[in-house]
Amino acid sequence: MAVPFLISHITPFTFFYFLLLSSSSSSSPTAVTDLNITSILSSFQNFTSFASLLSSTSVLSDLTRREDPITLLAVPNLYLSTPPSSDLTRRLPPSSLGDILRYHILLQYFSWTNLLQIPPSGVLVTTLLQTTGRAPANFGAVNITRNPLTEAITIQSPAPYTASNATVLSLIKSLPYNITILAVNSLIVPYDFNLMASETRPPLGLNITKTLIDGHNFNVAAALLSASGVVDEFESDEGGAGITLFVPTDGAFGDLPGNLRLQSLPADKKSVVLKFHVLHSYYPLGSLESIVNPVQPTLATEDSGAGSFTLNISRVNGSVAIDTGIVLASVTQTVFDQNPVAIFGVSKVLLPREIFGKDPPGHSVVGTAVHPPELSPSPEKSAWLSSPASSPVGFHEEIKSDGQRFRALSSIVALYCMVLYLMI
């Protein structure tokens, strides 16, 4: 008798409420990658120039790789067209201007309430520039302070007595808890950012094929790149954020099984495999060793869509390990490292699972031992600020599948209880 008594006090409306609650609890916030930031900015007439700046550099491609919340510091047209901001946009090449814009992307979500709760002493916040490895010490971070009397919010470099700073004007857009867009009254220049060097430095114009041949251990890769024609595309990408190439040694090509010949692949697939070995950003060895987001898109990702043809980069046994999902390789040496191009030798040919599947013919994966590099790390080491670790691979999928099972179970229980209720 106790069971019917309890059930009789649970109405169908209550069941529907539980179902709604279970559905909402399993949902997750929209990823930053799903948001078109330029579209959001362009919908505000005062920010069309700043949206154009983002589109003219490689910053947008960096943002599409991120799934973590951000706060964007956007400069209105009026302030962008007057000094000192106008001097920067007019004088700087796209590569340097891109780094200035990365300095305006905070890797943390701030609501207006969060800003008003900042202590007068300030808080240190990592920016997208810090993740490139091109900012020395903690100069890729910003210090946000609040004046307790006027409630004015100021943003500047953490270096003492820095001349460049900006004041927050207003909140433009907030999509909890993914993105906030704040209006600021000026572009901010990172401390120790050499404007004159950025202005006058000629393009590197590196001949990648010749560099590999001079390396004496990369003749197969040099021949493949030259025959495919993609090397011209790589060299044209030296501007902007730069590039990082992972080039298999001649021995790595020799380790491929006899029935897996890259030379026999169709031209389009061969091109994809070669692009799979390239990141569309410059990463010196020190940055790879301290990389914040281990899942990195490649040039092949840009042709095929977000989430495909990615590399998982981590530090294992004191060396940089690169996991494709079916091959685990290690960085064995530094072939060339001069901003904006880094070339590293790797112990295995990086085979994408999108082409070769989970178990390529005659090629058991994967587990090659990761050994320390033969050469000493690049002198361009940068200290990195710590930031929250990325979610493990498959984490979001597990949450999604658990939520689906929970909703299905809730529906069955609700239906069963409703039947009992009607029978009473």
UniProtKB/TrEMBL annotation:
The keyword Oxidoreductase does not apply. GO terms for biological process: abscisic acid-activated signaling pathway; mucilage biosynthetic process involved in seed coat development; multidimensional cell growth. PROSITE patterns: FAS1 (PS50213). Pfam families: Fasciclin. It is found in: Cell membrane. It is a lipid-anchor; GPI-anchor. Residues 34-175, 205-350 form the FAS1 domain. It comes from the Eukaryota. SMART domains: FAS1. Keywords: Cell membrane, Glycoprotein, GPI-anchor, Lipoprotein, Membrane, Proteoglycan, Signal. InterPro entries: FAS1_dom_sf, FAS1_domain, Plant_FLA. Residues 1-27 form the signal peptide. GO terms for cellular component: plasma membrane; side of membrane. The keyword Membrane applies. Its main location: membrane. Belongs to the fasciclin-like AGP family. This is Fasciclin-like arabinogalactan protein 4. It comes from Hibiscus syriacus (Rose of Sharon).
